[in-house]
Amino acid sequence: MAEILKAIKGMNDILPPESARWEWLEDIVRQLMRRYGFQNMRTPIVEPTALFVRGLGEVTDIVEKEMYSFEDSLNGDRLTLRPEGTAGAVRAINEHSFLYEGGKRLYYIGPMFRHERPQKGRYRQFHQVGAEVLGFAGPDVDAELILMTAALWRDLGLVVGRDVKLQLNSLGQPEERKAHREALIRHLEAHAELLDEDGKRRLHSNPLRILDTKNPVMQPVVEAAPRLLDFLGEASLAHFNAVKAVLDAAGVPYEVNTRLVRGMDYYNLTVFEWVTDRLGAQGTVCGGGRYDGLIEQLGGKPAPAVGWGLGMERLLLLLEEVGVPAPETAPDAFAVVFAGTPLPTVLATLEALRAEGIAVVLNPAGKEGPASPKSQFKKADASGARFALVFGPDEVAQGTVSVKPLRDGGEQLRQPLNDVSAWAPSLRVGRPS
Length: 433
Prior knowledge:
433 residues, alpha+beta, five-stranded mixed beta sheet, ATP-binding, cytoplasm
């Protein structure tokens, strides 16, 4: 017997009934995106490695440590499995001159890949929902994107301020970050003996990322570091204050976290994260911000942009932790077919019901014909179906089917086979049509 092959560590199969929760979440996301005027986009899983080196920054953790990169054996091109979605979205926008007719609201859902140590809520293949607004520079768009995430939490049954909390910051503009960077380097150099190896390596290449360290030994140094907010000019502060004003008016609570920098180099002005204390170390559920320079950086004409990314695995873990109920997956009805019943009539009736939107399951007959009624009723009960449709030779000969309630009691009724549309709605009892 051949050895059973297994999935790569950190790249997980998603099977029923768990897959139903994924479909449910994706449906809610798509409905949300339609309400806010977003359109779906789909980009390749494999992109040129240079896209992420140039877009995310050479000294980010993603580029330095986490990318799955390889050489194309056909032509020698350096390729990478996408570790995030924004760079690929911008590449597609530039390649197809998609902003030629004006700004766009786009979203995507799909797998991303990072070579990390797998742990709960952090996998090597993970899935993201991403929302990108391109071509609009105002703080109203930043605020609306944050409000959209707050609406998503409500749609999912999460409580803002309890289950998820919003952290907000501004990274200003490049010249403001440059002045802050110089002051930050001076501060960190004065305490170089307290920096870990990662901090020392980044001291002159990317000191802002040191502020995001989780090393407890470095926390006093980080807490005393110069704040980027104190280096912001009038325009950057006005942008940040306008975002906060919208959130205040909408009643969305937030905390200004001056150490929030995000993990990619392309951000400017507004950055934000939605965090939870219910998932331990994997507390960031959604994050994003403005990236006005990235479109030009990747070869396009200068244009502003802002967006966010949401980890689906982590969000599903949070929903489970909070106790949001799993979606209903049971069929409406289960067909119990007695021996001797004409199968063409049975299948024609089931197709008519499905055309009316009824979810109905047939237990396929084996080589010897249908299983015993007792066995079929047992499977009908195990399926979670609300009704059994009993197709016996006598019923079918009289042009009827018996509808037997399986969950809430009630009377077993005979219904006409030639007028399925008249009684099909009664099978939707207990669920929305």
